[in-house]
Structure formats: C-alpha cells, structure tokens
C-alpha cells in the first residue's frame, strides 16, 4: 500500500494532508525518513508520523452540530477549544471533513477515514453543502443572480450555486438567504456574498449531502450509521459517472 494511503487509512489525516506530511519529512518507515509519495508500506513495517507510530483503526464517522466559537481543527496552538474537544468519548483519532469558520455553526462531519474525506471535499463529486446566511442588504433575484453563474473570489471563479430567499427585512436592511454550493474553498460563502455587495453577519451550514441537524443541539454529536455513510459514498460515486 502506498504510504499516503496507509496514513489515510490509519486515520491520521486525509490522503492530501498525508502527502504534505511526507513532503515535509515528518513520516518515517522503520526509522528512515520518507519523502517519495510512491513509497509502499510492507507487512511488518513500522510507520511513524511526527515521531508517533500509527496503526489501522476501525473507521468511524460522526455528525456534529458545531457551535460558534469552536475551531474546526484537531488542535490549536493558541489553546482555543476545538471540535475534537466536543467528542471526548471518541477513542479513534478523528478529524473534521473540511472546515467551518470559528463563527460559523452547523453540520460538520468528523472521521478517521481518509478516502471518505477526499470524496466528500473534492469539488468534482458535487456533494451539496447548504448554508443559511444572514446578509446585509435586501435580497432579490437581480442581486443574487451572479451567484448562479459564479463569482470571482481570490482570483478564481466559483462554480454555479443555487439560492433560496428565506426572508427580507426592509426595516433592518438585511435578508436571510439559503445557498447551496459544491465546493469548499476558504471562507467561500462569506466571500461570495461579499463579492455581490451583501456581507454576511451570521452563517450556518444546515446540510451536507444527505445529512442535516435533526435531533442535534449545538455542541452535540452522534455516530453515523452504515446506511448514512453508504448514502454519502453513493452520492459521490454517482456524481463522478
């Protein structure tokens, strides 16, 4: 098995993140630093990442209703609370599938399955990610139309998105808009609305693929069952056909 896949299967990181660790010289096999991505792991090899031996774990999948003020990371050098701190009962080395900003709430998946993570976050698989944003300005078809064609953020055009106007409040000069995207670029939803002159002041992800927050209060998590995981896998596979 290739070293990056072995690391992903062990639940240390996604395959892409594993490649970064290898390039940085943080991975060893039998005490020797490995930098070649094509390196294979044989039976009996001792693999270490940042000095810690890794082993294959049972694959687990959790759905978290991320609250505001929590970092979507495994750890934080500033000592801030992370999403991992919200699941103290989980023994496996899980990590978030993608990220939600510190002040963004809602659906977040955590797992130790690197292949699953790659499927969920790769834009070619077109997994629906639904957000509800409270924005400044009065939303209408005209000013939201650019979102359906793609807007340029960070020098690159976004994929076409879908929107639904939930509420318009003329007195307060703001609106609530539901936006469905397939990508997961850094601060993407906020930057998309900013690009059309409607900055976001509150944001929540309400759906990820077939998952929503039914039955979960902020800060609560539950383990996904086999059917739910299979539905997410199938959604990614069907999109690539």
TrEMBL record:
<dbReference type="Pfam" id="PF00849">
    <property type="entry name" value="PseudoU_synth_2"/>
</dbReference>
<dbReference type="InterPro" id="IPR020103">
    <property type="entry name" value="PsdUridine_synth_cat_dom_sf"/>
</dbReference>
<dbReference type="InterPro" id="IPR050343">
    <property type="entry name" value="RsuA_PseudoU_synthase"/>
</dbReference>
<protein>
    <recommendedName>
        <fullName>Pseudouridine synthase</fullName>
        <ecNumber>5.4.99.-</ecNumber>
    </recommendedName>
</protein>
<keyword id="KW-0413">Isomerase</keyword>
<comment type="similarity">
    <text>Belongs to the pseudouridine synthase RsuA family.</text>
</comment>
<dbReference type="GO" id="GO:0016853">
    <property type="term" value="F:isomerase activity"/>
</dbReference>
<keyword id="KW-0694">RNA-binding</keyword>
<dbReference type="InterPro" id="IPR018496">
    <property type="entry name" value="PsdUridine_synth_RsuA/RluB_CS"/>
</dbReference>
<dbReference type="InterPro" id="IPR006145">
    <property type="entry name" value="PsdUridine_synth_RsuA/RluA"/>
</dbReference>
<dbReference type="InterPro" id="IPR036986">
    <property type="entry name" value="S4_RNA-bd_sf"/>
</dbReference>
<feature type="domain" description="RNA-binding S4">
    <location>
        <begin position="1"/>
        <end position="64"/>
    </location>
</feature>
<dbReference type="Pfam" id="PF01479">
    <property type="entry name" value="S4"/>
</dbReference>
<dbReference type="InterPro" id="IPR020094">
    <property type="entry name" value="TruA/RsuA/RluB/E/F_N"/>
</dbReference>
<dbReference type="InterPro" id="IPR002942">
    <property type="entry name" value="S4_RNA-bd"/>
</dbReference>
<dbReference type="InterPro" id="IPR042092">
    <property type="entry name" value="PsdUridine_s_RsuA/RluB/E/F_cat"/>
</dbReference>
<dbReference type="InterPro" id="IPR000748">
    <property type="entry name" value="PsdUridine_synth_RsuA/RluB/E/F"/>
</dbReference>
């Amino acid at each position: 098995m290739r070293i990056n896949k072995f690391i992903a299967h062990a639940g240390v990181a996604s395959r892409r993140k594993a490649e970064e660790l290898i390039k940085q010289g943080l991975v060893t096999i039998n005490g020797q630093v490995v930098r070649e991505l094509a390196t294979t792991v044989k039976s009996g090899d001792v693999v270490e990442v940042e000095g810690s031996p890794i082993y294959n774990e049972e694959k687990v999948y959790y759905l978290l209703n991320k609250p505001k003020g929590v970092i979507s990371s495994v750890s934080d050098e500033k000592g801030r609370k992370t999403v991992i701190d919200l699941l103290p009962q989980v023994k496996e080395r899980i990590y978030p599938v993608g990220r939600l900003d510190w002040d963004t709430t809602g659906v977040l998946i955590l797992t130790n399955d690197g292949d699953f993570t790659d499927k969920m976050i790769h834009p070619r698989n077109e997994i629906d990610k639904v957000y509800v944003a409270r924005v400044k300005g009065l939303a209408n078809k005209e000013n939201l139309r650019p979102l359906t064609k793609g807007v340029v953020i960070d020098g690159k055009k976004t994929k076409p998105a879908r929107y639904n106007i939930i509420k318009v409040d003329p007195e307060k000069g703001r609106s609530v808009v539901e936006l469905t995207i397939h990508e997961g670029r850094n601060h993407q939803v906020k930057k998309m609305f900013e690009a059309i002159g409607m900055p976001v002041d509150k944001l929540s992800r309400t759906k990820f693929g077939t998952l929503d927050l039914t039955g979960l209060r902020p800060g609560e998590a539950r383990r996904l069952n086999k059917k739910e995981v299979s539905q997410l896998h199938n959604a990614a596979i069907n999109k690539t056909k």
